[in-house]
Each structure stands twice: as C-alpha cells, then as structure tokens.
Amino acid sequence: MSDLQQPTSPAPAAPVRTAPVPGGAGGGPATRFEITHGPSFAMLRVDLAPGQVVSAEAGSMVARHSGVGMEVKLNAAASAGFVAKLKAFMIALIRKFVGGETFFVNHFSSPQGGSVWIAPAMAGAIAHRRMQGETLTLSTGAYMASTGDLQMRLKFGGLRSLLAKEGAFFLQITGHGDLWFNSYGGVHSVPINGPFIVDNGHLVGFEGALDYVIKGAGGGLMGLVASGEGIVCEFNGQGTVYLQSRNRSALVDWLTPLLPR
Amino acid sequence: MQIDVGYRPAPAMARVQLAAGESIMAETGAMVGMSTNVHIQTGMGKRGIMGGLKRVFGGESFFQNTFTAQNGPGELLLAHSLCGDIVPLEMTQAGFLIQSSSYIASAPWVDIDTKVGGFKTFFGGEGLFVLKATTTHPGQILVGAFGGIQELQCDGDLVIDTGHLVCWDATLDYSVGKSAEGWIATFLSGEGLVCHFRGQGRIWIQTRNPSEYGGLVGRMLPPRKR
C-alpha cells in the first residue's frame, strides 16, 4: 500500500474539504475525500473504506492504488434479469447519444481500502454535495463521481432547449450519498429567492425545488440572434443554482476563427 | 544557480538566477525573457545528431539551447508551453524519468537521454516517451505540467494514467499496460493505458491530461477544410 504525501511545494495546497455530515442519514458513512488544485485544475482524491464503491465518469481516473479494482459498468442501474439489463443498456445508449453523458461508468472499490484520484478533462473546479434525499439537476457533462445510493435519470429540457448548444437534456439526481460535479472555470452557487436568470452555457445545476423555463434572453428573435446571450434559464422559487465562470461554447467560438484553414 | 517559481499552480513561470559563467540547458521556446548578458547557444546537446534525432522521435525539439551568464550574474525567465505548474527538482543519485513533454530545463552537466517507453505505448495514442535524467554532480531540473502538480509517494505500488504522468524517481520499476483486466474493458473504461509502478519512490502527476483536453475541445470545433 502507498500513502499520499503532501506536495513538497507550497503553492498547490488547497483547502481540505471533508464531507460535512459525519455518518450521514443514508447512503453509507461520510466519504473521506480531498479536493486539491482548485479552482482551475481541481483534482479529487477519494480514500475508500474497505468495500466502499465510488463510481466515476469513464476516463476520469488519474491514479489509484494497485489494490483498488476497477470495474466497467453501464451508465444505468441494472437489476437482475435480462429485461432489466436490456432496459439498462437502452438507458445508457440514450444517455450517450442524446444526453451527452458517457455510455459507461467505472466502479472503484477495494476489499482493504485505498485511494483513487479523479479529475475531469476540462479546466475547472470540482464541487461536492452530500445528498440527503433531495433532488439535484445537473447540466450535460457536469457529473463526475458519486458514492452511496443515488438514482439518476435524464430529463428533457423542453423544445426550446433544442436551440441551445449546451444540450437539451439534464441529469436529475436523487437519493443519499456523496456527489462530485465539475465545471468549466469556478463553481459559483447562487441562493435564490424569487426569479433569477442564468445563461444556459454557464449553468451547472440547480436544486429540485426550483421551477425553470428555458427561453431567449429577451427581445424576441432579434434578441436571440443579436444579444449574444442565446438561450437562458429563468428560475423561480427558493433554492440554490450552481453556475460556472466559463462557457464551453464561448471557448469554441473564440478558438474556431483562429484555427488554420 | 537559484530557481524560483512564481504564479503557481498555473500558469507558472520560473526565474533562474545565474552566477557569472554559470549556464542552464533548456528546451527550445521555453525562454520568456533574460538579461542582456545572457548568451544563447543553440546545439544538439551532448549526444550530437543521434541525440537530437532521438529527441525528435520522443516529441521534443531537435535542438536545445544553453543559456550562459557572461561578464557577471544574469537572470533568465522560463515557462512551459501548457497552462500549468512548474516544479524544480534536486537531482538524486538514481536520477529521474521524465515524460518528454514535461521537460523544461536542466543543469548543463545533467545527462538527458531519450528512452522509448515500449511498443505498447506507441500504439496507445498517449505515447509515453520518457527522458532519463542522470548526473554525478548535484544540480537541478525543471519540469512543467498541464494543470497542477501533485507529488505522490509510491510505497509498494500505484497505478497512474499515462496522460497524467510528469516524472518519477528512477528507483521505481514501471510497466505500461491495460487499465482494466481485458482489452475490451480497457477500451470501454475510457482510461486508455496506465503505468504500473512498483517499489519505493516519488511520482509527480499533473491534474489534467493534455490529450484528453485536446480531444474534448477538438470535438467541439468545426472540421478542418482541405
């Protein structure tokens, strides 16, 4: 077994965050973890208890102790039986091609415990949330890893969301356990009480109690085309909205004209 | 030679203070700025043409620059091509193995040899070309990363994604292999190839994978017109 050594260099030392609820209400005991190198290049280390399982987005593993095993699973809960497995296969397929999620997730676990290091592909932060039975809705690609008993399903954002470049689907997560999601740039949480508008490309997620409508930023069709703001999400109610400080479409729009023809 | 690194973890820059007559060898294109009395000499390094060709094969440039402070002390600023951290490492008896694109600079007496990481890596996409840094005198090397750099202590064994490797102590045994049990599972897992480390030593990893990032952003870009 190996141990993590703190960086000898002083700079990347990031705040140590552990799950806020010791031995939470469900989804197993609080997971030991640390998020370092935030906000631009955040990395997650999960210290697995013996037998504990962490699921992570395919391709996100950075490192693991050799004693930690990796199993590839369909990105959908499959219970026993052929029909259930077929259903799980279809759900995973839909997630991949419609929802922009990966078809597979990797399960990491070890009978004797050990660590796994996980990082997203994009430059940005990692946020943690201990789920206690509430619902959280994430944008396409925001999910990174989780432990415990969390159910996920795809949710169609409505016909108007088809106009948005960021994808017309959301991932709705509910249950008990630890959830880690990633962003492009820093994650900013906005507690709202009443209406609040968010650019669709900057939306990371929101709490289930919020109502939302996807619409143009205002000014009709002209506003949609000329304001550069595109599609926005208008929230209403009381709860938290998570935003990211950068937008992938903006990166692509800036990069495209600079490429050689 | 005194090396300080600023703007950490990203985008880091190294300041090298050279005493009169002292020099440092650096990857071409790494220079950001320097005092006027620092002289650049471009060459193929100690290993001549073959050394240069091997570097090209390993994804590095054919030439290397040697910066020397003449007629008094001088200052040299160095940076990495990717947005990320830079770490100066003190050379050890065993030396280091460095993932080739992470190499930035080294003391002139440190021998840098290109090693090819085995044929598996050649087909893996994430070509693991490594440089071996060895020396008999004390000295420093500078390595850079994409994202933050994290030092891990290997005490027995660790498995690391080849795209996240920066460098490691040459005391460690390493082999490149599949990330899962079988090739199909390896392909499905999306983890590609991993490096299995055994023994005792330090490993420096980068918190982002350059080719994964490139693949993600590249997919969103329009196709190139021919």
Instruction: Kindly state the percentage of residues in helix of chain A.
Output: 10-25%
Q: From the 3D coordinates, which CATH architecture of chain A would you assign?
A: 4-Layer Sandwich
Number of helices of chain A: 3
CATH top level assignment of chain B:
Alpha Beta
Alpha carbon gap, first and last residue of chain A: 51 Å
Count of all domains of chain B: 1
Report strand % of chain A.
Answer: 35-45%
CATH fold descriptor of chain A = Double-stranded beta-helix
Which residues of chain B sit in consecutive blocks of at least 5 with pLDDT less than 50?
119-126
Strands of chain A, total number:
17
The largest sheet of chain B is:
7 strands, antiparallel
The helix-and-strand class of chain B reads mainly beta
Low-confidence stretches of chain A are 1-25
Oligomeric grouping of the chains? heterodimer
Q: Say which CATH homologous superfamily of chain A is assigned.
A: Mitochondrial biogenesis AIM24
**Strand residue content of chain B:** over 45%
- Would you state the CATH class of chain A? Alpha Beta
CATH architecture name of chain B: 4-Layer Sandwich
